[in-house]
Amino acid sequence: MVLADLGTRLRDALSSVESGSDQEIQSMIKDIVTALLESDVNIKLVARLRDNIKNQIKDSDDKNPSHIRKRLQKIVFDELCELVDSHQEPPQPKKLKNIKQKGPAKLNSSGKKITPKSNSYVIMFVGLQGAGKTTSCTKLANYYKKRGFTVGLVCADTFRAGAYDQLKQNAIKAQIPFYGSYSEQDPVWIAREGVERFKKEQFDIIIVDTSGRHKQEQSLFDEMVQISEAVTPLQTIMVMDGSIGQAAESQALAFKEASNFGSIILTKMDGHARGGGAISAVAATKTPIIFIGTGEHIGDFEVFKPASFILKLLG
Length: 315
Ligand code: GDP
Prior knowledge:
This protein has twelve helices and eight strands. The chain has helices spanning 3-15, 22-38, 43-58, 65-84, 96-100, 133-146, 163-174, 187-200, 218-231, 247-259, 276-285, 306-314; strands spanning 121-126, 151-156, 178-179, 205-210, 235-241, 263-267, 289-293, 301-303. The chain has an eight-stranded mixed β-sheet with strand order 3-2-4-1-5-6-7-8, with helices on both faces. Strand 2, helix 7 and strand 3 (178-179) form a beta-alpha-beta unit. Helix 6 runs parallel beside helix 7 (163-174). The longest helix has 20 residues, at 65-84. The radius of gyration is 23 Å and the shape is elongated. It starts with a helix and ends with a helix. It binds guanosine-5'-diphosphate. Guanosine-5'-diphosphate binds next to helix 6.
């Protein structure tokens, strides 16, 4: 079931409660459970949500139908938020010029100004091929650029033919500096070189795009580890296709083990996203979704906030 349909089904379930009778409430809970399961939300999570709703509604003696409806809405809303909320905040990049402004410039023994060690905020992207990594790299770079950060993009995807061209075109269009190579085949070398260059130029944020594969493979995970060791990212972001179903959870767990990513960007949440699988992945890895991709264009990118996401879902 696509996300928009899930929203309709949840709304219908909530509005089916009129008198607030036990029978109506049970039927509403059943409808919510069925809708979530059909959207690929993990069965254990759905069972927990069902039990939580049941427990909370039974705690009240108020039999006023309109109060019951309001209470139910609040309980269901809170429980759905709980499903997508990891309660973790990823670290936030800082502008280097703000950091640099602190205190007078340091001088070495011969009176020369010491260039401070670069504190560039390095972000590494991981994910399967086709998930939307390259697209999301530019979207994220553009997001930070618009907020006054200096951002550099590094294309360390040497596996997919055309990945560098794609990143380059996107970067040029958005006027974001980029680094990559047509001839160099070693992604670790490119990643290190690109990051070093942007660090030297004191960029606030450096975003490294890495290769994907069609499926989880040891070679992909080995490469991710090597790149990570070479560029020591402050944040690793997993890009996940929001339209994949049940596979999302095991995919996220496998990537978590290999790259210990700290946040997720869910892509393709427009159109045919099922979303439920990806939501379960968040719960399984206890990792926050930070942005969602809502289209192919650079501006189709939204900060993910659990409450507003659920509010929108419920219409
Ligand atoms: P990569 O292999 O992970 O780097 O994936 P790409 O960035 O090349 O994206 C694969 C395809 O998905 C491309 O056709 C993108 O335009 C498309 N895509 C990426 N993000 C989104 C999104 O949020 N919504 C939609 N509809 N398409 C997207």
